[in-house]
Amino acid sequence: MATSITFLGGAGTVTGSKYLIQHDGKKILIDCGLFQGLKTLRVRNWSPLPINVSEIDAVVLTHAHVDHSGYIPRLIKDGFRGRIYATAATHDLCKILLPDTGYLMEEEAAYLNKRNRTKHKPALPLFSQAEAELSLQYFEPMPFNDRINLPGGISFEFTYAGHIFGAAQVIMKCDGKQIAFTGDIGRMQDPLLYPPAKLTGADFLVMESTYGNRLHENDSVADTLEKIICDTHARGGVIVIPAFAVGRAQALMYYLAELKKAGRIPDFPMYLNSPMAENASGLLTKYRELHRLDVADCDATCNVVRYVRSPDESRWLNEQKGPMLIISASGMLTGGRVLHHVKAFGGDQRNAILLTGFQAAGTRGEALQRGVSELKIHGEYVPIRAEVHTLENISAHADYAEILQWLEECNIGPRRVFVTHGEAVASDEMRRRLIDKFGWHAMVPDHGQTVDLA
Ligand SMILES: [Zn+2]
């Protein structure tokens, strides 16, 4: 029976992941992500999918990041009524992330309407917070390493991916063919998460390539953090750390707990000002089997910060004096409470702003990395005199050398490999490396392309 794959997102870009498998009249969508970043990508969220959404039989999610899950409320709004299969931890994280995404979309639409800065009158959100909450009832939480049957003789299994909590690879079988989706692949050595599970077979492989053309620095995260914290503390300064609420914030808390335990940083107030990150941190204790921390380390990680909950507490924090440390979202300063902290503390040269990962073009985070002397926040220019640093080696993605080593240990011989989830240059370099090292038939699919899996 004919089987095909259509790349509806995540092709030539790191966002919008959506891969449609069609087999024997059945349609299964692997991931259902939002396009983010450049405007030319974001407008794709508004074009209807080139299939009748109500004909999709099921959605299978690799993990909760919104570039993999954030289109789900829209899919339901447009008529999808099937089940959404995800690991239990991914389901829990989606309960946090999807309503927040809807809330931010409503806020943005309201802002544009108020300022009259829209061609569309009125500007509308892609979906609302209420619609996102409604979409959660379609989820079907599933365990790892259990084969799940879908219509049309298709089945799949979730295996560990080590990227964030609950992140999985999807190993699909139909008609004797095995189609493996890596999802986002984590590091081979990570203090919190285990390495990705080995593939035991793949006739067809759909693999990510975020770092297809880059290697992570070898700097120790702990050493860099220690130096920045101790230097800023000695000046009586405030350290503001913009961080992604899911994954990055918990990794930072782990390093802070380790440094504190080893007496490498002073005992001083450290705050986590992100209700979303606090909820995500709570999952550390709920899913102990998914991470390496023992009970004591897990408690130390969760207790290393004081949690800031209400907007009043958040404002109170801005009136405090250093030394202190604040972790807050969003990670690229595109919105959220961290903007108020940068406004309050960015102008003082005793303070430090520590960026914690990739900063996309056009974001305030990227502007800070370029060394700007002022930043536009909430319509006004804020002077930046604080030191700006970037913590390079705290990525949740394997680099190309790690991926090649992992694939070598997997001992597979796929008939075809589709290189996805990377900027065009990164995906193409990954493709070339796969051909050079393994002699595989690898390609970078175009957006919208359909390939027969014969
Ligand atoms: Zn991800």
Give a description of the structure.
- The protein is α/β, with parallel strands linked by helices and 454 residues long.
- It folds into two domains: 269 residues, Metallo-beta-lactamase, Chain A (4-Layer Sandwich); 170 residues, 3-Layer(aba) Sandwich (Rossmann fold).
- 32% of the residues lie in helices and 21% in strands.
- Strands 6-5-4-3-2-1-22 form a seven-stranded mixed sheet. Strands 7-8-9-10-11-20-21 form a seven-stranded mixed sheet, with helices on one face. Strands 14-13-15-12-16-19 form a six-stranded parallel sheet, with helices on both faces.
- Helix 7 packs across helix 9.
- The protein is globular.
- The chain starts with a strand and ends with a strand.
- The site of zinc ion has 4 residues, from loops.
List keywords for this structure.
454 residues; Metallo-beta-lactamase, Chain A; Rossmann fold; seven-stranded mixed β-sheet; globular; binds zinc ion
CATH class division of the largest domain: Alpha Beta
CATH architecture of the largest domain: 4-Layer Sandwich
Approximately what portion of the residues adopt beta-strand conformation?
15-25%
Number of DSSP E strands:
22
